[in-house]
Amino acid sequence: MKRLDYIASLLKGYDIALDIGSDHGYVLKKALDLGYINKGIASEIAPGPLENAKTNLKNYPVTFYLSDGFDKINEKFDIAIISGMGVYTIIDILNRAPKCEYILQPNDKHEVLRKYLMENGYIITEEHITFDKFYYIIIKVKPGNENLSEEDIFLGPKLRLNKNAKDYYKLKYDQLSKILLVCDNETKKNITKQINYLKKEI
């Protein structure tokens, strides 16, 4: 399933969804077209993408904000989406965001995000994986406390229970095995540990 379609499908059953960095507004449009949500809020940091969303969502029950993350959002919502960004951008947004349910889809370094979530009062409730030219991991969270092992932080506590993740783990295993041949000794220790985690899953 395409990445944005998959994210839209995870909105089913919510009333109002906020999309931070909505770009063209596709996720909200899909979720509204399919009746997954009743209202959307689209936020963008730049005027150009926000105008794209306004064009694509004309006559839809959506409000629009030119905002850096949550800074200018003044409406209630049930769940927020932050997707298609680097992990450190997502963390920066979360540092200035309310505690609520989130659908998060970082482009990289999922283990960094999982560690941040654990240390900042979030529980990972679901992890999904889809292939759309590349593998994408989608992490659903809610406020709460949990302790994750280093292995769970790397593999994903819910992702490792997902049979669809096996091919992704195999790809990661192959990539890290190649890096292991050329990296320095300090990096080698860490990668060897990660490879051993992956061995259990493939």
What does this structure look like?
Strands 3-2-1-4-5-7-6 form a 7-stranded mixed beta sheet, with helices on both faces. With 202 residues, it is α/β, with parallel strands linked by helices. The relative contact order is 0.11. It is elongated, with a radius of gyration of 18 Å. It folds into 2 domains: 3-148, Rossmann fold; 162-202. It is built from 8 helices and 7 strands, in the order H-E-H-E-H-E-E-H-E-H-E-E-H-H-H. Helix 1 crosses helix 2, helix 4 (87-95) runs parallel beside helix 5 and helix 7 (166-180) packs antiparallel against helix 8 (185-199). The chain has helices at 3-9, 26-33, 47-56, 87-95, 110-119, 150-155, 166-180, 185-199; strands at residues 16-20, 39-44, 62-66, 79-85, 102-106, 122-132, 134-143.
Q: Number of domains in the coordinates?
A: 2
CATH homologous superfamily grouping of the largest domain: Vaccinia Virus protein VP39
**Topology pattern, helix = H, strand = E:** HEHEHEEHEHEEHHH
Can you name the CATH architecture of the largest domain?
A: 3-Layer(aba) Sandwich
Question: What is the averaged pLDDT score?
Answer: 97
Q: Radius of gyration, Cα only, in angstroms?
A: 18 Å
- Strand count: 7
As a percent range, the share of helical residues equals 25-40%
The CATH topology of the largest domain is given as Rossmann fold
CATH class of the largest domain: Alpha Beta
